[in-house]
Design brief:
single chain; alpha/beta; Rossmann fold; seven-stranded parallel sheet; 8 helices; 15% strand; globular
């Protein structure tokens, strides 16, 4: 471990690693010395992120996975456990934003997709990787949330309700492991950030008026090195 590569020797897994905050976080973790497992559906986009990691002298492994497929998460965890003894950092960044509509007009197919990715896959990831993170000396689980999970907003109910459930899963997991493990769980609200998801939600917004994903990634890299109380929650402003 060095000052420039403080996460040397650690293994991290980032979901939603093909774009936006997930990609930026994966690159930043690798630059800090971690070997990063990149999880998302699209191979070419994952390869592009991996190329950026390698250009910066980092190391990574791509794992193209559709988190909504039956047994996909458990198969992923088994494959990783066959190669690594522990998982030091688990960053849950994958999310799906349904169309913004009134509650009475929520599209069932989109709502189900949001529930599968934002909630069901989250529980599967926590359950499947629990043995690996518990074996790590000071594992960190970071979940990327949204303010609409805690503060309901008109037209955001389909997404906000899934993020409320996401938060509950992370907070419960933190409470359950607090007294029996060195594992620390944190929920991070990235705030207004320049992502494709943000552009869909706010099509008239000038993207240059909000911070880039790298600003959130920088904070996550710093956070995983801190000795915070499990269940910690924060918002990244800027």
């Amino acid at each position: 471990m060095t000052d420039t590569r403080p996460l040397e020797g650690q293994t991290a897994l980032v979901t939603g690693a093909s774009r936006g905050i997930g990609a930026a976080t994966a690159i930043a973790l690798a630059e800090a010395g971690a070997h990063v497992i990149l999880v998302a559906r699209k191979v070419k986009e994952l390869e592009s992120v991996e190329d950026k990691i390698h250009e910066k002298g980092g190391s990574s492994t791509i794992a193209p996975v559709d988190l909504t497929e039956k047994d996909a998460v458990s198969r992923l965890a088994a494959a990783i456990a066959g190669r690594w003894q522990t998982l030091d950092i688990l960053c849950l960044s994958a999310a799906y934003l349904p169309e913004l509509t009134p509650v009475s007009q929520i599209d069932p197919k989109q709502f189900n997709q949001a529930l599968m990715i934002n909630v069901v896959a989250t529980q599967a990831l926590l359950a499947s990787f629990d043995p690996l993170v518990r074996r790590a000396e000071n594992a960190r689980v970071i979940g990327l949330t949204s303010s609409v999970g805690a503060a309901p907003r008109a037209f955001w109910s389909a997404y906000g309700s899934t993020k409320a459930a996401f938060d509950n899963l992370l907070e419960s997991y933190a409470s359950e492991s607090e007294k029996i493990s060195s594992l620390r769980v944190a929920i991070v609200d990235p705030g207004a950030t320049r992502t494709e998801m943000r552009a869909r939600a706010y099509p008239g917004e000038d993207p240059e008026t909000v911070k880039p994903p790298e600003a959130v990634a920088e904070r996550i890299v710093a956070l995983v090195q801190e000795d915070f109380k499990t269940g910690h929650r924060e918002r990244v402003d800027g």
